[in-house]
Amino acid sequence: MEGYHLEHRTEFTDVLVLGGGVSGLRAAVAASELGASVVVVSKSVSASPEIMGFNAPVMPQDSAELYFKDLEISGYGVNDSRLARVLSDKVLGEVKYLESIGVEFERDALGRYLPIHTLGTAYPRLIKAGNSSGTAEMRVLSSLCRKLGVKHDSPVDILGLLVSDGRAVGAYGLDKREQKLVCYYAGAVVLALGGCGAMQSFSTYPRALIGDGYAMAYEAGARLVDMEFQQFEPCCFVWPEKLSGKVIATTLLRHGAILRNGEGRDFLADYGLTRENAQKGSLARAMLSEVRAGRGTPHGGIYYDLTMMDRDFLYNDHAIFTRAAADAGIDLCRDMPEMMPAAHTNLGGVVIGTDCSTDVAGLFACGEVTGGLHGANRLGGSAGAETVVFGHIAGDSAAAYASRLGSVQMEDAERAWAKAELSFHGISGSEPTFSASGLRRKLGECLHEYLGIQRSAESIAAAGLEVQRLRSELENARASSLEEAAELIHLRHMLLVADMQIKASELRTESRGVFYRTDYPVMNDPKWRKNILIRDNAGHMSLSFRDAIRCNDGIVSER
Question: Which one of 66, 225, 246, 418 is most buried, by most CB atoms within 10 A?
């Protein structure tokens, strides 16, 4: 075959976990503790190190019920209440489990937790394990995986799921060290590949997080939900340039920090906001409005004024930010960095039940690759909680499924790989006919400009035209190596995910939570207390609607 050879090695396991962040590792541990053989496959990067902490009702006056109510309010009436109930009910158990395996959450001299009060919560709930809870959790979970005999393959660039007769039987990818394809065959698959924030040109996310998990699930036959809802982290550095895209916590607004425009004025009240009650979506829109009105800072942002805050509090409790700033040459107690919102958490994703099952038999999902939990806004601190709660559930469910159905039959495995192999034959050529970096840059700029914090029919249409144009550029593209073939597959995944976001944004003719349309600025509950579902229908993208799922009576049911 012209271009490259399709040599591949094979691996067999009971449970295959795609993704090596906290959610994937928690799933791997859970499945292994139930006796399943487990392989974790990852690119070696994730967004988990950015997890500062996670919400749990640890205060004496707090409760799972109050946390649930905050999740309901935060979701603007369209989150899946069943998933919110599971999260609020089970998160304390995960805290105790993580502590039992070596994660040390911060406590005072009397042994009491030291939770932080985040935006939108009735009580302080954000508990931390040092300056990066995600890093601490990954370290402990990785160590436990090794003790349990979990195999971890990395860096492997996962490119697609293997499906036979409607059942997920594994996945395939490119081993970056060997430059050889690898096929993983499994009794059950856990999808934990994270979100797509890095598709946009200005993002908080590692460059590798471009929505592959969404695209793979869609191609395998799973439904996705709420793909129009993307959260933008308000306070991200634009200056100093060395820190561009790095996040600094909006929780500091509760402790004396002030957002100031280029004129030095605290402008939140102009938008009906306070430092205590503002949600991330409303903060991001207010900041953008000030900049577009010509009241931005020299580098096109908003000042984050921390100069009046207690120095010991800032440098001891938030050292992750002060150290990074010091390395870039500024003192946050003296200098005012410049901020702008950046693409962050995607709130939509793969539809799951309370057992983390998807529409595809044998495929389970957890973490940011899933949708429904957060609705139209994510409550600060809940992403971290989500990774461990649903990672645990996904691992348990996958292990049980694999035990019940047994190992994959060789004929099913071979049939699934033969179908995947055809896609490589179709893009092989003697020389590359596309520029991965150029196309990705164009897509990132398009999404940043037209599908950002504020949208309209005009901007959504412009994004659609550009995505269509980029897709036509790739229609007959060829790759001369496996590395180039992988890049081409990723680009096609990105365009597919962008198309989902565009089509869902076009349909939702209102504003809700993080989703804001300038041509429909009002939330319309009578018409739009609904979710938009997306799935593949014989090669065409099909969109449908469902009423938002509520369980205010406390009853949680399966999908």
Answer: 225
The Cα–Cα gap between 483 and 173 comes to 11
Torsion angles phi and psi, residue 229, rounded to 5: -95, 110
| Side-by-side strand order, sheet with 349-351 | 370-371, 349-351, 224-225, 530-537, 540-547
Whether 281 is covered by a domain: the verdict is yes
Give which of 23, 15, 137 is closest to 397, Cα–Cα.
15
Label residue 392 by pLDDT band (50, 70, 90): very high
464: CATH: 1.20.58.100
Q: Tokens at residue 371, please? A: 């949708």
Q: Strand, helix or coil at 47?
A: coil
Q: Mean of the pLDDT values across residues 8-15?
A: 93
Is the domain of 150 the same as that of 22?
yes
Enumerate the β-bridge partners of residue 531: 546
Residue 551, domain member (yes or no) = no
As to burial, measured by CB atoms within 10 angstroms (0-12 exposed, 13-18 middle, 19+ buried), residue 139 is middle
CB atoms inside a 10 Å sphere around CB 329:
10
Structure tokens at 333: 């107690």
Pairing of strands 349-351, 370-371: parallel
Please enumerate, as own/partner, the contacts of 480-483 that have beta carbons within 8 Å and a separation of 24 or more. Answer: 480/3, 480/4, 480/428, 480/429, 480/430, 480/431, 480/432, 481/3, 481/4, 482/4, 482/174, 482/179, 482/180, 482/181, 483/174, 483/179
Residue-wise pLDDT for 66-99, tens only, equals 999 999 999 999 999 999 999 999 999 999 999 9
User: In a 3-state reduction of DSSP, which class is residue 38?
Assistant: strand
Cα–Cα distances (Å) from 379 to 118, 205, 347, 348, in that order, read 8, 18, 11, 14
Give the whole-angstrom CA distance, residue 299 versus residue 400: 54
Model pTM score: 0.93
Q: What is the DSSP letter of 455?
A: B
Phi-psi region of 55 (alpha: psi -120 to 50; beta: other; left: phi over 0): beta
Pairing state of beta strands 38-41 and 8-18? parallel
What is the spatial distance between Cα 393 and Cα 356, in angstroms, rounded to a whole number?
7
Report the distance separating Cα 187 and Cα 398, nearest Å. 8
User: What is the count of structural domains for the chain?
Assistant: 3
Pick from 314-328, 337-351, 479-493: least confident: 314-328
Pick from 120, 144, 154, 183: nearest CA to 19: 154
Distance set, CA 3 to CA 6, 65, 462, 485 (Å): 10, 59, 36, 10
The b/e string for 27-42 (b: 16+ C-beta within 10 A; e otherwise) is: bbbbbbebebbbbbbb
Lowest-confidence range among 2-16, 442-456, 484-498?
2-16
Is the pLDDT assigned to residue 540 strictly greater than 70?
Answer: yes
Residue 438: CB partners within 8 Å, gap ≥ 6?
A: none
**174 in helix, strand or coil?**
strand
Give me 314's structure tokens: 């800032």
Tell me: do 472 and 328 sit in the same domain: no
Q: Alpha-carbon distance 123 to 47, whole Å?
A: 26
pLDDT at 3: 65
